[in-house]
Amino acid sequence: QVQLVESGGGLVQAGESLRLSCVTSGIIFRLQTMGWYRQAPGKQRELVANISPGGTTNYADPVKGRFTISRDNAKNTVYLQMDSLKPEDTAVYSCNAQRTTWPGTNYWGQGTQVTVSS
């Protein structure tokens, strides 16, 4: 059974930091491209950052220089360090595991709420 379990969300003030974690099970973690997505009320879900099996990272423009994605293959866990948070970062953040090679699977976590007050 595949599970992606996020944690670390919460309510913070603008300028503060949070660290999200996503612990996975039931997948070959080291072969997954891991990503963090977010969805704000009334908006479409958007990519925040992802990291390839080889460690190549990619960030959405609004978070470049403030957020850092990392992975620990020994712990089957991906992290998102979020610094200098802004009210516009408020959203539900979800973890994604994508196998870009066969069998091409794609799994999602339940999400964790991040709220940034001004």
Q: Strand content of the residues, in percent? A: over 45%
Helical element count?
0
Major sheet details? 7 strands, mixed
Task: Provide the succession of SSEs.
Answer: EEEEEEEEEEE
Secondary structure category: mainly beta
- Low-confidence segments, given as residue ranges, are none
Helical amount: under 10%
Give a description of the structure:
- This protein has 118 residues and is mainly beta.
- It is built from no helices and eleven strands.
- The radius of gyration is 14 Å and the shape is globular.
- The protein starts with a strand and ends with a strand.
Relevant terms:
0% helix, single chain, 118 residues, mainly beta
SSE layout and pairings?
Layout: E1 3-7, E2 10-13, E3 18-25, E4 33-39, E5 46-51, E6 57-59, E7 67-72, E8 77-82, E9 91-98, E10 106-108, E11 112-117
Parallel strand pairs: 2-11
Antiparallel strand pairs: 1-3, 3-8, 4-5, 4-9, 5-6, 7-8, 9-10, 9-11
Provide a brief overview of the structure.
The chain is mostly beta strands and 118 residues long.
